[in-house]
Amino acid sequence: MRGSILGIGTNIAGSIRIPALCCGIFGFKPSVGRVPYAKQASAGRPGMTGIAPVAGPLCHSARDAELLLKVVFDAHADDMDDNALGLAWSDPAPRSSDTLTVGLFPEDPKTPLHPSMQRVLEEAVGKLKAAGHRIVDLSCKLPSLTDAADISFKFFRIDPDKTVLGHVSKSGEPFIPSLRFTYDLTGNEPEPTLRGLFDLNAARAEITGQMRKVFVDNKLDVILAPGYQSCAVPHDTFGVPVYTVIGNMIDYPACVIPFGHANEVADAKFVRDVTYVPNYLPKEVEGAPCHVQLIGRRLKDEELMKHAKVVEQVLSK
Asked: Which stretches make up the Amidase domain (predicted)?
């Protein structure tokens, strides 16, 4: 509704990209340390290790996001935030060709794409191909999104004091259904161990290495993926954000670009005999904005922004 021209969100599993894709706007999750995060309120326990949160823009275009990030990157944030890297904006080097090599992230078998997103991604690939860009099918080349999400949420639950649940319990309010996807609300989950933390770090390192290898071996500029298996869904049915949390776990910058809308008639031929999570409710989501997600390399935020502007322009035609 254009109530704001630009805002800043925070993100540890997808909380920049998910509101953006639900509302049909542009959202950019930078690499850790590029945007300062000091003094932010946290529901978690101080000193928590694992996956670091980030802050980034939600806005109406890649151009808007680029403007904010240029200003913030050049602001010497490391003078105010011990965890800020203080890396100034660096324009990517000129390329000999404007053609992008785009890796296509395969669907997670346990979280199949809803018909609207399957159609929109197919249309996006068609537009990119028609514009001369190269598409590389990454089927069987990438780590499991389900495994990555499982590792990520084990990191989120590693606090033995269960600080987040304690805050909710003290409020006297009931737990919302969404928390069941993140925490064991029964309190019976085994207490995390130091050995378990080592194992999680090793598992994350393996997936991070697999992603780097996919980028390098296939000479990719960017990966094209869904940010979620659907467009916006009814409250408290979202579930585990498997398509976004991997970007946080491996600390790769990522963004979502609005593209297309749910359309029951156009989506009908994409309906499959699979278990949609959450349920596919075409009339509930009719007309809702759809999207694509782009994933870049760690600390190469400027390159991802450059590629996002190219993709955004192609999809707008």
From this structure: 2-304
Q: What is the 3-state secondary structure (H, E, C) of the chain?
A: CCCCCEEEEEECCCCCHHHHHHHCCEEEECCCCCCCCCCCCCCCCCCCCCCCCEEEEEECCHHHHHHHHHHHHCCCHHHCCCCCCCCCCCCCCCCCCCCCEEEECCCECCECCCHHHHHHHHHHHHHHHHCCCEEEECCCCCCCHHHHHHHHHHHHCCCCCCHHHHHHHHHCCCCCHHHHHCCCCCCCCCCCCHHHHHHHHHHHHHHHHHHHHHHHHCCCCEEEECCCCCCCCCCCCCCCCHHHHHHHHCCCCEEEEEEEECCHHHHHHHCCCCCCCCCCCHHHHCCCEEEEEEECCCCCHHHHHHHHHHHHHHHCC
Residue 60 falls within a domain, yes or no?
yes
- CATH number of 205's domain: 3.90.1300.10
Whether residue 1 is contained in a domain is answered as: no
Would 59 be classed as within a structural domain? Answer: yes
Domain coverage including residue 157: 6-315
The domain tally of the chain equals: 1
